[in-house]
Amino acid sequence: MAGSTYSSNLKIELMSTGENSGTWGDITNTNLGTALEQSIVGYGNPDYLSDANLTITITNSNAAQAARALVLNVTSGFGSLTATRELVVPTIQKQYIVQNNTTGGQSITVKTSAGTGITVPNGRKAHLYVDGTNVIQMFDFVDINGGAIDGATIGAASASTGAFTSLTASGATTLNGAVALGDAAGDLITVPGTVNSNLVFTDNSFDIGASGATRPRNLFLAGNGTVGGNLSVGGTLTLTGGVNLNGNVTVGDSSADTLTINSTVTSNLIFTDNTYDIGASGATRPRNLFLAGSATVSGNQTLTGTLTVDSTTDSTSTITGSIQTDGGLGVAKALYVGTSINVAGAGTINGTTIPASKTLVDTDTAQTLTNKTLTSPAINTATIAGGTINNASVGASTASTGAFTTLTASSDSSFTSTGALAISKGTTAERPGSPTASMLRFNTQTTEFEGYNGTVWASVGGAAISNDTSTASNLYPLFANATSGTASTVYTGNAKLLYKPSTGELQSTALVASNGIVVNGATVSSSYTIATGNNASSAGPITVDDGVSVTISSGSRWVVI
Questions:
Q1: Are 387 and 394 in contact (CB under 8 A)?
Q2: Measured distance CA(34)–CA(24) in Å, rounded
Q3: What DSSP string runs through 30-78?
Q4: Distances in Å between the alpha carbon of 451 and those of 383, 405, 431, 458, 461?
Q5: Count of alpha carbons within 13 Å of 411, Cβ hemisphere only?
């Protein structure tokens, strides 16, 4: 006989034929009085035990379970929620009335484990339905034909006055009759900036403002305002945002009126059609343009008259298109002069005074300077036939002394004095950072002359000597053809005579003691290995120091006589 099973949604026990003899009545009473009644009118209390999502489940039992109840009173007994948390309900088909009574002011999202859900604000109630996949709103359309909402009569034969905490209309709303918005001077009518909203008057005979003699009133716009026709402002118009004026715009009604653009804001006066002038119409155009601050011009400007800088000028020039300035004229980039600069008085260029009787000539062509003394600024390239530079004679019949920062000779040069030529000197660290081949200097650190050969710095006029004790390869000893004075020839050894600095070994094909005596020490003070293929002999007795060893390779011998 098969056992009981349970319904898929409410988990009511379904008994098979013939089972539960003597107890089937109790099971039926539990099904009806507990399980079924709880799902119809029951009250469950899901409680968050931590600041995390909460999952409630329903199991195969007809005993009372919170997930089976119609009403879910959700609390957070542990403390306050810090963010929106999920209440995960069983993925069945069932309706819930959810009350968010958690602490912390946070919303909860009622959902299934794999589906979507509905967010219930803190302190609010929601009638929801689990459709077997997702949690959805129980109602999305309500038709109220009568009754009252918040005490306001709905659907009565005549209009009634009601007060609503919040009234939201998602579609078009028609308000017939007098409409009072707000009941105090401090109340605001707000049109959100996040939606495209318009305030439209179908009858253009009415103003925005109070009725009677006081109309019209002020209109305050915090955003952009678009005016399709003429706009007449009898008082002051304050604009805090962008304004588009599509029709004729008249600013001021008398010659004394002023148009002021505050210097504390970034303001632009832009003409999209460049065929029009700034000034009056008719024969008097263009008018003067007065700028109290700086003017930035991005394109070319043509001046048919005189551009006057400063309020007064002492200029006597009558040249068309000249720039006259009583103050300073600053030029940020190079100033190009096609012919000459005429200075009525004395001028100063880079600290050099130009007398009133002198003229600066064109620099585009070769010029000849005769009997002139130039101290500043410098001339980068010039052919000087004679005169002095830094008081050093140039082109004179006798040599003169002068100091130059850089001296370059493109042809062969001769130094014919009987004294000495002092060349560049410095330490190794003071060598040029980017040397070129043929550079010559004196190294004050090694006290040697050195030159750069294109790869490294090397000694000039001799070889550097170092005490080498680390080289492990054989080197060739050097020999001179003289024992004193200057050796005219230096000879090097070959493979028949080699020296290894790391061990001190001197290797020769035949060592000849011309006086008949070969001397060896009586103490072995450092470890040594007699390599394979070599033998050794010593005149004894021989003492080997502590910690020192002599290693004799296989096949080799050491004979102590």
A1: yes
A2: 15
A3: HIIIIIIHHHHH-EE--B-SSSS-EE----S--S--GGG-SEEEEB-TT
A4: 32, 21, 11, 6, 10
A5: 1
Instruction: Indicate the range of 177-191, 249-263, 371-385, 409-423 predicted with least confidence.
Output: 371-385
Name every residue whose Cβ is closer than 8 Å to that of residue 352 and which is 6 or more positions away in sequence: 374, 375, 376, 377
Query: Residue 87 phi/psi, 5° resolution?
Result: -115, 105
* pLDDT for the residue numbered 319: 46
Mean pLDDT of the chain: 75
Phi, psi of 279 (to 5 degrees): 155, -170
Distances (CA, A) of 323 to 198, 280, 326, 516: 54, 25, 10, 107
Q: What is the pLDDT of residue 153?
A: 63
Please give the helix or strand (H or E) that residue 387 lies within, else none.
strand 387-389
Predicted confidence band of residue 157 (pLDDT cuts 50, 70, 90): low
Is residue 126 within 8 Å of 110, Cβ to Cβ? Answer: yes
Between the alpha carbon of residue 450 and those of residues 63, 157, 423, 442, the distances in Å are: 104, 116, 11, 6
**SS3 of residue 214 by DSSP:** helix
pLDDT for 118 beyond 90: yes
State the Cα–Cα distance between residues 107 and 46, nearest whole angstrom.
Answer: 15
Mean pLDDT of 165-183: 68
14 SS3 class:
strand
**How far does Cα 116 stand from its chain's mean position?**
39
Q: What is the pTM of this model?
A: 0.34
In this predicted structure, the answer to whether residue 348 has a pLDDT above a threshold of 60 is yes
Q: Could you tell me which of 77, 71, 68, 69 has the C-alpha nearest to residue 47?
A: 77
Closest-CA residue to 560 (of 532, 552, 526)? 552
> What's the pLDDT score for residue 215?
46
Provide the 10 A C-beta neighbour count for residue 135: 24
Task: Give the Cα-Cα-Cα angle 349, 354, 356 (nearest 5 degrees).
Answer: 135
| Tokens (6 digits) for 437 | 């081949």
The pLDDT value recorded for residue 173 is 73
What SS3 class is residue 429?
Answer: helix
Coil, strand or helix at 212: helix
Q: What tokens were used for 372?
A: 């002139």
Average pLDDT rounded to a whole number, residues 319-346: 59
Beta-strand relationship, 243-245 and 225-227: parallel
Mean per-residue pLDDT, 225-237: 68
Cα angle value 77/83/89 (rounded, 5°):
65
pLDDT, tens digit, 9 for 90 and up, residues 85-103: 999 999 999 999 999 999 9
Question: 119 pLDDT band (50/70/90 cuts)?
Answer: very high
Report phi then psi at 112, rounded to 5. Answer: -90, 170
